[in-house]
Structures are given as C-alpha cells and as structure tokens.
Design brief:
- The chain has 7 helices and 11 strands.
- It is α+β, with helices and mostly antiparallel strands.
- The protein has an 11-stranded mixed beta sheet with strand order 1-2-3-4-11-5-10-9-8-7-6, sandwiched between helices.
C-alpha cells in the first residue's frame, strides 16, 4: 500500500481533514514521511499550494517542505504546539463549522448553478482566474442582482462526505444577502450528492464567522494556519 492510500485509510473523514483528503482523493498530494507523522503537499495547479501536518513530523522534514516554495500550512490542534516550537511562532486559529439546521426546501431566488465554462457569466477581473479554475473542477453557484453575477460559491475541497465552502462577493454588493443565497443554492446541490458543508472561519475574520452562524452553522472543530 502506498503512502497516499495508507494516509486515506488512517485519517477519518472529519472537518479538519476535508482539504487534505480532497487532495489525496484527487491525486494532487505528495506525502513525505510516515502516515503517523508526515507533511503533505497539496497542489491542484490553481496556484495556491497547501501544506498539511499529520502527527509530529521531524523538524528537518517540515522546514525542508516549507523552504521548497511558499504555501499555507494547515495544522490540527494536536500538532500545533509541536509545529509552533519548530517555527518559533504560533498559528492562527480557524474554527471549522458544520450545518446544524435543516436545509431550505426551495432553491433561493435569483441564483444559478453553473456547471461548465461555456455557461459561465462574465466574471469580475479580480475573481476571474479563481472562478475559472474552480469551474474546471466543480460546479459554481451564482447569486444575481439585476442579472449581474455578484456572489459566487463553490466547493473548495470535497471528501467522501464533506465539502468546504468557498464564497466570494463583489465589494459593492456585500451585506445584501447575496452570499447567503449563493451558499444555500450550493448546499442544496451538494446535499443531493450526499455531502455536508464545512465552513472555515479564521479568528481574524469575524465577518465570515457571523455569516456562517446566520446560515445555521456551529463550531465543530478547529485548525491552525501558518
């Protein structure tokens, strides 16, 4: 059994592992070390590589992986003190929230599900690269105002039973309920595929946590970000 398969077998499908499991399942992960103490690089080619810590990997392995290229480092709570001692600084806590109330029965108004680039609306320049990369992998929920696409939601990561909520709203259209409509539309689609949403909100982004709670999410787990 190779390291990827061993790690998939060893790690349960929990909120803290949704991004890591997504890379392992998609074949975009490189595992260094042993399944019980390793560093995993996930790179889907979209320009935002990630590093994941499992257990307590050796300091030289972690620093070598970090030195190869800049990447976000995601660390579970049980590994945080170990990594903080190696790096000489503490990570930023991110709460992982799960949905704790029933989904709406009907799709929200003025939303569309986009499944291919051929059907995509005009994307704003600041989000075009991100949204086009996402749409090559997963569906995209779009909230509209006067036929303009103003909020976008897609599964940033997908495991066997979970998906990670990625949401963007144009600056001039925030606090109008557009993000909530886009998220609800995507939640309904993914529920039909047997997957439950996970919402990650770092401690320096209270607006994200506030929106998650309005949608019915509650804290269930946590990670640390470096």
């Amino acid at each position: 059994m190779d390291l990827t398969r061993e790690l998939l077998h060893a790690l349960p499908d929990l909120p803290r592992w949704v991004e890591l499991r997504s890379h392992l399942l998609e074949g975009t992960a490189t595992v260094e070390g042993e399944p019980s103490a390793c560093v995993v690089r996930g790179d889907d080619g979209a320009g935002s590589p990630q590093l994941f810590v499992v257990g307590k990997p050796p300091a030289d392995l972690l620093t070598r992986m970090l030195s190869q290229s800049p990447a976000e480092l995601l660390v579970p709570p049980e590994s945080h003190e170990h990594v903080a001692a190696i790096l000489g600084r503490r990570g930023l806590r991110a709460d992982l929230l799960t949905l704790r109330q029933p989904l709406p029965r009907q799709a929200p108004p003025e939303t569309r599900i986009i499944s291919s680039l051929a059907d995509a609306p005009a994307f704003p320049p600041e989000l075009e690269e991100e949204l086009r990369a996402a749409l090559r992998r997963v569906p995209l929920a779009v909230a509209l105002e006067a036929e303009q696409a103003v909020a976008f939601c897609y599964p940033g990561s997908i495991s066997e039973s979970l998906w990670d909520v990625s949401i963007d709203t144009l600056a001039g259209f925030r606090r109008r309920g557009h993000a909530m409509r886009a998220v609800r539309a995507m939640m309904m689609l993914m529920a039909g595929r047997g997957r439950v949403p996970i919402w990650g909100a770092s401690e320096d982004n209270p607006a994200s946590s506030h929106l998650a709670h309005k949608l019915g999410f509650q804290e269930a787990d946590e990670l640390y970000l470096f």
